[in-house]
């Protein structure tokens, strides 16, 4: 390598001065992320499940809410099933007194 | 955390159990009626709120009508088969085709008349309002099958009784 270039490279110094607030900004960012992690919904929910849910009043409420919602869903579905069965029975009755419908079913 | 998770598991088990029990208890009556050979008569009893005396009379009418209905069914099936065979083997409306079509139509008319007689006899056993509703429902199905189902549907839409 050229000796002249070698000397110049050896003599080259990079002088970097970080901004005065560099350290505090980094720590602030780290603290903000920690705080966000602590405040996340899932973390809070897990904490609530661990600390509050075993209490009788909350446990009873969760069980009752679950049962109420499932009975509500079952009620809506049962209505649909019954309507379908009722119409099938109605069709069966009509066919039972209608010879033309029975003959059509035979063919 | 373990106790909290246990509460959630218990809540899930209770919810699924409540769902299954409710669905079964709310639908088993109609389901049982569907699986019975005479379920349609039980449907009639519940749909038109028949008391025991009305139901017994209607059941008797139904039993008396059934052999006539079966005989008419066979006659219609034979006449239709004969007309279909003649129509399929002809290339024009021959006197035989005309006679077969006429015979089929006459039988259908006769069958409709007897069916209407049965429907009137059944409705006469019901209370006035239920009889009217029964007549409307049956005539829409048999005499005017073009009527929409919703115009004559069960009183509460068949939500099960």
Short description:
Chain A is an all-alpha fold and 107 residues long.
Describe this structure in words.
The complex is a heterodimer of chains A (107) and B (161). Chain A has helices spanning 3-11, 22-38, 41-51, 56-97, 99-106. The mean pLDDT of chain A is 87. Chain A folds into 2 domains: 21-51; 56-107. Chain A is mainly α and 107 residues long. Chain B has 161 residues and is mainly α. Chain B folds into 2 domains: 1-35; 39-152, Four Helix Bundle (Hemerythrin (Met), subunit A) (Up-down Bundle), CATH 1.20.120.1490. In chain B, 78% of the residues lie in helices and 0% in strands. Chain B contains 5 helices and no strands. The model of chain B is unreliable at 146-153 and 155-161 (pLDDT under 50). Chains A and B meet through helix 3, helix 4 and helix 5 of A and helix 1, helix 2, helix 3, helix 4 and helix 5 of B.
Largest sheet properties of chain A: none
CATH class of the largest domain in chain B: Mainly Alpha
Please state the structural category of chain B: mainly alpha
Largest chain-chain contact? A-B, 45 and 59 residues
Percent in helix of chain B: over 70%
From N to C, what is the helix and strand string of chain A?
A: HHHHH
Radius of gyration of chain B: 24 Å
User: Strand-residue fraction of chain B?
Assistant: under 5%
What fold name goes in the CATH topology slot of the largest domain in chain B? Four Helix Bundle (Hemerythrin (Met), subunit A)
| Largest sheet composition of chain B | none
Poorly predicted runs of 5 or more residues of chain B: 146-153, 155-161
Report mean pLDDT of chain B, rounded to a whole number. Answer: 86
Report, as a whole number of angstroms, the end-to-end distance of chain A. 103 Å
Q: List unreliable stretches of 5+ residues of chain A.
A: none
Q: Please state the overall shape of chain A, judged from the principal axes of the Cα atoms.
A: elongated
Share of residues in helices of chain A? over 70%
Dominant shape of chain B: elongated
């Amino acid at each position: 390598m050229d000796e002249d270039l070698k000397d110049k490279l050896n003599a080259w110094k990079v002088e970097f001065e970080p901004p005065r607030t560099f350290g505090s900004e980094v720590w602030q960012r780290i603290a903000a992320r920690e705080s966000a992690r602590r405040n996340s919904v899932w973390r809070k929910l897990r904490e609530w499940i661990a600390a509050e849910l075993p209490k009788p009043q909350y446990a009873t409420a969760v069980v009752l809410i679950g049962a109420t919602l499932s009975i509500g869903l079952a009620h809506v579905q049962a209505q649909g099933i019954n309507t379908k069965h009722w119409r099938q029975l109605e069709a069966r009755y009509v066919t039972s007194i209608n010879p033309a419908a029975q003959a059509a079913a035979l063919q | 955390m373990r106790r909290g998770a246990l509460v959630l598991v218990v809540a899930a088990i209770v919810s699924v159990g409540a769902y299954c029990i409710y669905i079964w208890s709310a639908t088993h009556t109609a389901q049982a009626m569907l699986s019975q050979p005479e379920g349609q008569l039980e449907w009639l009893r519940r749909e038109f709120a028949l008391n025991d005396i009305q139901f017994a009379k209607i059941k008797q009418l139904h039993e008396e009508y059934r052999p006539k209905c079966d005989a008419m069914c066979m006659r219609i099936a034979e006449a239709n088969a004969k007309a279909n065979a003649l129509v399929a083997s002809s290339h024009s409306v021959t006197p035989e085709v005309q006679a077969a079509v006429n015979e089929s139509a006459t039988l259908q008319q006769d069958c409709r008349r007897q069916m209407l007689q049965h429907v009137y006899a059944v409705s006469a056993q019901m209370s006035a309002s239920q009889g009217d509703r029964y007549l409307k429902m049956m005539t829409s199905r048999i005499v005017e099958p073009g009527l929409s189902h919703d115009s004559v549907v069960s009183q509460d839409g068949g939500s099960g009784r």
